[in-house]
Design goal:
The strands form four sheets. The protein has a six-stranded mixed sheet, with helices on both faces. A four-stranded mixed sheet has the order 13-14-15-16. Strands 2-1-5 form a three-stranded mixed sheet, with no helix packed on it. The protein folds into three domains: 128 residues, Distorted Sandwich (Spo0b-associated Gtp-binding Protein, Chain: A); 171 residues, P-loop containing nucleotide triphosphate hydrolases (Rossmann fold), CATH 3.40.50; 77 residues, GTP-binding protein OBG, C-terminal domain (GMP Synthetase, Chain A, domain 3, 2-Layer Sandwich), CATH 3.30.300. It is built from eight helices and 16 strands. β13 and β14 form a beta hairpin. The chain has 388 residues and is of the alpha/beta class.
Amino acid sequence: MPEGGPDGGDGGDGAAVWLEADPNVSSLLAFRDHPHRIGGSASHGQGSGKHGKSVPDLIVKVPEGTVVRDHQTGEVLAELNRKGERWMAAPGGQGGKGNARFLSNKRRAPAFAEQGEKGQEQWYRLELRLFADVALVGFPNAGKSTLISRVSAAKPKIADYPFTTLVPNLGVVRLDDTTDFIMADIPGLIEGASEGTGLGLQFLRHVERASVLLFLLDLTAVDGQTPAEQLRILRHELGSYKPELLERPSLVVGSKADVLRPEDWGDLEVDFAISSVTGENLQPMLWALSALVKEAVEGDNAYDEFVIHRPMTDTVEVVREDDGGYRVTGRAAERAVALSDLTNWEALDYARAKLENLGVNRALRNAGVREGDEVRIGEFAFDYADDL
């Protein structure tokens, strides 16, 4: 502005995209047909010192128990287990500074400004793990579906052949007006489940999200395996998949007690012997489970630590690329060269000083860069010189 100095305002900040656990969201089906979530763009800065308007972050609601994985590697980046837990899927782009920001004693009329930071594009895999207080673990036809149908309002498919249950069933067990818990009927595990036999791995993931385990053993020796052998195999599969599962609070319960007499059970010791048909010992067992659930929740030992992952940091890093060039990464370094016109000597001088202050030159030298090597920062590339 002639005779008035620089007056360019800053651009607004773009929206970050967050995932947030919400108990009112029950599934991830909304992502199947509409997988994209896009944060809004801010407005530009203007003359007369007018700053652009920033836009609020985009909050994407997901069910409790959502696991976020890297799309390529499968690495777990975050677990959203409780109401209100948030994870930043992509940070919003920061608005560029107007030329008024670059006024100094040496630079009385800066003729350059920053561009707004480009938004990030990220791909993730979302996985929903069952979220229950008690997981029923047992062989096919051990009586899990019959039990959960008897003690809750769940109506799973029940038949006298293996693998009746192909998806987990949830039921709310209500003991009185102030005491209830969620029970999950996990599809039957078999020997080799931890190695992927059958649908083992898929179902073992659901077991991870339960606070308490109920080992349900068929006292009638299902498929010729004694109750003691069933328990040994179930513990082995859980321990092979994730050893810490064996440290969860648990009960060992024998089912179908109405069919056999106690003297026919062999040397197996169980916490309870029940009959889902006659109701024998169901209430004492449920109260025992309720006590274990309460203890687990108060101790908060049923869940993994919440993980925060941010796709980009201000830390400057230098990597050697396959073609022999060097790539500088780090949000601050990329912003330093995101100026409108680096052919402008003022803008170039500012960027050079900024990179020096960030330690980019030192990092390049430590990485082994030599005179004439190509260096890339964001979309900007230049040949390295010792006097940079």
